[in-house]
Amino acid sequence: MNRNDIIISAENIAEQREYSLKCRELFACRLGRQPRACVVTFGCQQNEADSEMIRSMLHDMGFGFVSKAEEADLVLFNTCAIREHAEMRALGNVGQSSHVKNANGAIICVCGCMAQQTHVEEKVKKSFPYVDILFGTHALWRFPSLVYKKLFYGKRVFDTQGEGVIIEGIEPLRKEPPNAWLSIMYGCNNFCSYCIVPYVRGRERSRDPEVIISEFTKLVEAGYKDITLLGQNVNSYGNDLDCGIDFSGLLRRINDIPGEFRVRFMTSHPKDATKKLFDTMAECDKVCKAIHLPVQCGSNRILGLMNRRYTAEHYLELIEYARSKMPDITITSDIIVGFPGENEEDFKQTIDLVEKVRYDSLFTFIYSRRKGTKAADMEDLETAEDKQRRFDRLLCVQNRISREKNELYLGRVCKVLIDGLSDDESYTYKGRTEGFKLVHINGPKGLEGTWQNVKINRASTWALFGEIVD
Predict the structure, then answer these.
(1) What's the mean per-residue pLDDT of the chain?
(2) Could you tell me the pTM of the whole model?
(3) CATH ID of 3-159, from 3.20.20.70, 3.40.50.12160, 3.90.180.10, 2.60.40.10
(4) Residues 6 or more apart in contact with residue 139 via CB below 8 angstroms
(5) CA distance 195 to 179
(6) Looking at residue 303, what DSSP letter applies?
(7) Which of 115, 200, 280, 374 has its CA 20 to 30 A from that of 463?
(8) How far is 135 from 248, CA to CA, in rounded Å?
């Protein structure tokens, strides 16, 4: 892969800023006031990071932001395609936006992974005539020019072609501290048979480590204290670079940045997770002792059909080594139930693996067929009812383990970063431990964004509860 072909030039970014200024002028003339935008994001943290970049470009166009589509002059849906449910949910929300279009003539935009798919583009053209702008992940950096085309020519704009790129020079419009996302790479080379990501986000592209270090340093200086490095497979960071730095090396350099912060990362692929990575995590004091390591299934036969390229035995060896280096490490994972060809014995092997690992929590899904993936053509003989029963059994097992794991925190004092108000009416704040466990706390005003020592006095399946101590 030629780096010069995938890095958007400074000249191209400058040209898009010119389009932003033109859009600002056109909106000012047409509305006579500041335009308002509503950005709705579906899906993963990478989509959230993309939305921060989109908000930055909208800000350059002169937009303020509202949370209700009914109040907006431009409504943008940043969509997800990882499962059918996510796609249908996004399309349902897009469908409901027709009344906003009719009421105040708002510009309706759809972007993200779902929009990158050809069949979705055709569906939007035919069934959603009120969608004005549709663009895929590869065209995100061209958003200002797409808005300008709509404003100037009045016609619908579609941009879903092209290859994956690296965008530098657009400062994301982030939420206030203490939490931040920082993308270190884009795309994926793994082509798991069930996954649409390589097709909608392209092949792996690592950002320059010096740019990442500079951006991370600025985040720390701006008061961000819990920063998550993002990538579809962070463990393969640097494989496409010729600079002698891999993901472990990047973590060590970030750990050396001055300041009080902690860094976490997601997502890791087990085939690329190494002892070197776990050694690095154990030795770096600012790197959280927590990892999201998706296993997907406990059956080697199904893992082969999934094209995961590791075995259950190898996965368990990784877990054992990680815990030998970090006994209190928090481990979470993803599991797919009902993959084509999975039978009762395969599922029992998954349950067995879950009992052996004892995850702190799981993200569990019933298999969703994705058009364009290899698994979409595999024969599936299991009924939806059988899949649901297995799914419920898995939840029952994991919920028990999650509660047992959380109860081990009773009486402990944990360092918690308070990051907002609690949604539990009995508590004032919520925060996160180093292992990203949710903690509800009471305390006086003004504690948002501060570190507090919290003694845990209650635990549930989903959260911890405690009191601030000296």
Answers:
(1) 96
(2) 0.95
(3) 3.40.50.12160
(4) 111, 146, 159, 160, 161, 162
(5) 28
(6) H
(7) 280
(8) 34
